[in-house]
């Protein structure tokens, strides 16, 4: 990545972010008990993340990589938040997720 222009969303950059978020989605397990209020929250967070991720893929496929970049970052933000507050079990992965410690 040496010499990479930092203020341009390139095809390579959006593809890298889509891959990171896909790996995060694949890793997450819902930690909240089935009948708890937190389970409803976890399901909602996951729905938002998947929706934004799918939007990002759609925008990437249509050539709108700036909007795709925004959508994939929203998707990952939902995942990070859910992991950080304990709705999702991410097996302590602090590379794909922003954990508290």
UniProtKB/TrEMBL annotation:
InterPro entries in the record: AF1782-like_sf (IPR036809), DUF357 (IPR023140)
Domain annotation DUF357: ranges: 16-88
One Pfam family cited in the UniProt record for this chain: DUF357
Organism domain of life: Archaea
Transmembrane region(s): none
Protein name as catalogued: DUF357 domain-containing protein
Natural source organism: Methanomethylophilus alvi (strain Mx1201)
């Amino acid at each position: 990545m040496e010499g990479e222009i930092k203020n341009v969303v390139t095809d390579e950059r959006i593809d890298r972010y889509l891959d990171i978020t896909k790996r995060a989605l694949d890793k997450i397990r819902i930690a909240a008990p089935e009948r708890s209020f937190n389970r409803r929250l976890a399901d909602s967070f996951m729905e938002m993340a998947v929706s934004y991720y799918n939007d990002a893929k759609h925008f990437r496929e249509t050539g709108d990589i700036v909007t795709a970049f925004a959508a994939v970052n929203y998707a990952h933000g939902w995942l990070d938040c859910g992991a950080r507050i304990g709705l999702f079990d991410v097996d302590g992965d602090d590379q794909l997720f922003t954990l508290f410690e």
